[in-house]
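Example 3.2
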Amino acid sequence: MAALALREKAILLDEEALGRALRRMAHEIVERHAGTRGLLLVGIRRRGVPLARRMAREIEAFEAVAPPIGELDITLYRDDLTTKHEHPQVGRTHMPENPAGKSIVLVDDVLYTGRTVRAALDALVDLGRPAQIQLAVLIDRGHRELPIRADYVGKNVPTAKREVVEVRLHEIDGRDEVALLEPGGGPGTR
Protein backbone atom coordinates (compact mmCIF):
# COMPACT_ATOMS: atom_id res chain seq x y z
CA MET A 1 0.00 0.00 0.00
CA ALA A 2 1.45 3.36 -1.05
CA ALA A 3 1.93 6.06 1.55
CA LEU A 4 -0.46 8.95 1.34
CA ALA A 5 1.15 12.10 -0.05
CA LEU A 6 1.16 14.92 2.49
CA ARG A 7 1.51 18.62 1.91
CA GLU A 8 2.42 21.30 4.40
CA LYS A 9 -0.66 23.18 5.52
CA ALA A 10 0.93 25.47 8.12
CA ILE A 11 3.94 26.03 10.34
CA LEU A 12 2.60 25.83 13.90
CA LEU A 13 5.86 26.79 15.63
CA ASP A 14 8.95 28.30 14.07
CA GLU A 15 12.39 28.04 15.70
CA GLU A 16 11.84 31.05 17.96
CA ALA A 17 8.36 29.96 19.10
CA LEU A 18 9.58 26.42 19.75
CA GLY A 19 12.37 27.77 21.97
CA ARG A 20 9.93 30.00 23.87
CA ALA A 21 7.57 27.07 24.47
CA LEU A 22 10.38 24.93 25.88
CA ARG A 23 11.59 27.77 28.15
CA ARG A 24 8.08 28.31 29.49
CA MET A 25 7.60 24.59 30.12
CA ALA A 26 10.98 24.39 31.90
CA HIS A 27 9.96 27.27 34.20
CA GLU A 28 6.60 25.61 34.91
CA ILE A 29 8.30 22.31 35.81
CA VAL A 30 10.69 23.97 38.26
CA GLU A 31 7.92 26.07 39.77
CA ARG A 32 5.63 23.08 40.29
CA HIS A 33 8.47 20.99 41.77
CA ALA A 34 9.87 23.88 43.87
CA GLY A 35 13.29 23.34 42.34
CA THR A 36 15.09 20.37 40.84
CA ARG A 37 15.67 18.11 43.83
CA GLY A 38 14.52 14.56 43.06
CA LEU A 39 13.53 15.57 39.52
CA LEU A 40 14.33 13.32 36.57
CA LEU A 41 13.46 14.27 32.96
CA VAL A 42 12.85 11.21 30.78
CA GLY A 43 12.62 11.64 27.02
CA ILE A 44 10.54 9.16 25.04
CA ARG A 45 12.62 8.06 22.08
CA ARG A 46 12.92 9.55 19.47
CA ARG A 47 12.16 13.28 19.59
CA GLY A 48 11.36 13.35 23.30
CA VAL A 49 15.04 12.82 24.10
CA PRO A 50 16.40 16.01 22.49
CA LEU A 51 13.43 17.94 23.90
CA ALA A 52 14.26 16.67 27.41
CA ARG A 53 17.90 17.68 26.93
CA ARG A 54 16.87 21.17 25.83
CA MET A 55 14.54 21.57 28.81
CA ALA A 56 17.34 20.47 31.13
CA ARG A 57 19.61 23.15 29.62
CA GLU A 58 16.87 25.75 30.09
CA ILE A 59 16.45 24.69 33.72
CA GLU A 60 20.21 24.85 34.27
CA ALA A 61 20.27 28.40 32.85
CA PHE A 62 18.05 29.74 35.63
CA GLU A 63 18.54 27.18 38.44
CA ALA A 64 22.31 26.64 38.01
CA VAL A 65 21.72 22.88 38.10
CA ALA A 66 20.40 20.61 35.38
CA PRO A 67 18.15 17.70 36.27
CA PRO A 68 19.37 14.28 35.12
CA ILE A 69 18.00 13.04 31.79
CA GLY A 70 16.86 9.55 30.93
CA GLU A 71 16.06 8.00 27.57
CA LEU A 72 13.14 5.61 27.28
CA ASP A 73 12.51 3.23 24.39
CA ILE A 74 8.92 1.97 24.35
CA THR A 75 9.07 -0.28 21.28
CA LEU A 76 8.33 -3.54 23.09
CA TYR A 77 5.56 -1.94 25.16
CA ARG A 78 3.49 -0.70 22.21
CA ASP A 79 0.02 -2.22 21.85
CA ASP A 80 0.31 -2.01 18.04
CA LEU A 81 3.72 -3.69 17.80
CA THR A 82 2.51 -6.70 15.84
CA THR A 83 0.33 -4.72 13.44
CA LYS A 84 2.71 -1.84 12.73
CA HIS A 85 6.16 -3.37 12.77
CA GLU A 86 7.17 -6.66 11.20
CA HIS A 87 10.75 -6.28 12.49
CA PRO A 88 10.72 -3.70 15.29
CA GLN A 89 13.89 -1.72 15.91
CA VAL A 90 14.49 -1.64 19.66
CA GLY A 91 16.35 1.47 20.76
CA ARG A 92 18.28 2.29 23.86
CA THR A 93 16.78 2.87 27.27
CA HIS A 94 19.11 4.67 29.66
CA MET A 95 18.42 5.96 33.13
CA PRO A 96 21.16 7.98 34.84
CA GLU A 97 19.79 6.80 38.17
CA ASN A 98 17.09 4.53 39.51
CA PRO A 99 13.68 6.17 38.92
CA ALA A 100 12.30 4.70 42.16
CA GLY A 101 11.12 7.50 44.46
CA LYS A 102 11.88 10.23 41.91
CA SER A 103 9.60 12.86 40.43
CA ILE A 104 9.62 11.93 36.76
CA VAL A 105 8.64 14.24 33.93
CA LEU A 106 8.11 12.20 30.77
CA VAL A 107 8.89 14.32 27.70
CA ASP A 108 7.50 13.72 24.22
CA ASP A 109 6.94 15.73 21.07
CA VAL A 110 3.25 15.15 20.25
CA LEU A 111 0.37 13.87 22.37
CA TYR A 112 -2.32 12.32 20.19
CA THR A 113 -4.18 9.12 21.15
CA GLY A 114 -2.30 8.58 24.41
CA ARG A 115 -1.06 5.12 23.45
CA THR A 116 2.61 6.13 23.32
CA VAL A 117 2.35 7.59 26.82
CA ARG A 118 0.61 4.45 28.10
CA ALA A 119 3.47 2.35 26.73
CA ALA A 120 6.00 4.74 28.32
CA LEU A 121 4.28 4.46 31.71
CA ASP A 122 4.48 0.66 31.53
CA ALA A 123 8.16 0.77 30.53
CA LEU A 124 9.03 3.29 33.22
CA VAL A 125 7.29 1.44 36.06
CA ASP A 126 9.15 -1.74 35.06
CA LEU A 127 12.38 0.14 35.91
CA GLY A 128 11.27 1.24 39.39
CA ARG A 129 8.37 2.87 41.21
CA PRO A 130 8.61 6.68 40.90
CA ALA A 131 7.07 8.96 43.53
CA GLN A 132 5.14 10.63 40.72
CA ILE A 133 5.06 10.79 36.94
CA GLN A 134 4.06 13.88 34.97
CA LEU A 135 3.91 14.47 31.23
CA ALA A 136 5.39 17.32 29.19
CA VAL A 137 4.59 17.53 25.47
CA LEU A 138 5.53 20.12 22.90
CA ILE A 139 2.20 19.71 21.03
CA ASP A 140 -1.15 18.41 22.26
CA ARG A 141 -3.29 17.75 19.20
CA GLY A 142 -6.29 16.10 20.87
CA HIS A 143 -8.12 12.93 19.74
CA ARG A 144 -7.36 10.89 22.87
CA GLU A 145 -8.23 7.18 22.90
CA LEU A 146 -7.03 6.73 26.48
CA PRO A 147 -7.62 8.91 29.57
CA ILE A 148 -4.24 10.64 29.44
CA ARG A 149 -3.51 14.35 29.72
CA ALA A 150 -0.34 16.41 29.72
CA ASP A 151 0.76 18.42 32.76
CA TYR A 152 2.94 20.75 30.66
CA VAL A 153 2.04 21.69 27.08
CA GLY A 154 4.00 23.83 24.65
CA LYS A 155 1.00 24.42 22.38
CA ASN A 156 -2.51 23.01 22.07
CA VAL A 157 -3.41 22.52 18.42
CA PRO A 158 -6.89 21.31 17.45
CA THR A 159 -6.46 19.03 14.45
CA ALA A 160 -8.49 16.82 12.17
CA LYS A 161 -7.67 13.12 12.44
CA ARG A 162 -6.49 13.08 8.83
CA GLU A 163 -3.88 15.75 9.55
CA VAL A 164 -0.35 15.02 10.76
CA VAL A 165 1.71 17.09 13.18
CA GLU A 166 5.39 16.83 12.32
CA VAL A 167 7.95 18.06 14.85
CA ARG A 168 11.29 18.81 13.24
CA LEU A 169 14.27 19.20 15.53
CA HIS A 170 17.76 20.36 14.61
CA GLU A 171 19.35 17.32 16.27
CA ILE A 172 17.43 14.92 14.01
CA ASP A 173 16.06 16.92 11.07
CA GLY A 174 18.51 19.81 10.72
CA ARG A 175 15.94 22.50 11.59
CA ASP A 176 13.56 23.50 14.36
CA GLU A 177 9.86 23.85 13.56
CA VAL A 178 6.50 22.16 13.94
CA ALA A 179 4.44 21.71 10.81
CA LEU A 180 0.83 20.71 10.21
CA LEU A 181 0.52 18.41 7.21
CA GLU A 182 -2.59 17.29 5.37
CA PRO A 183 -3.30 14.74 2.66
CA GLY A 184 -3.03 16.13 -0.86
CA GLY A 185 -0.62 17.13 -3.52
CA GLY A 186 1.33 14.94 -5.84
CA PRO A 187 4.47 12.85 -5.36
CA GLY A 188 7.22 14.75 -3.59
CA THR A 189 4.82 17.52 -2.53
CA ARG A 190 5.26 18.91 0.95
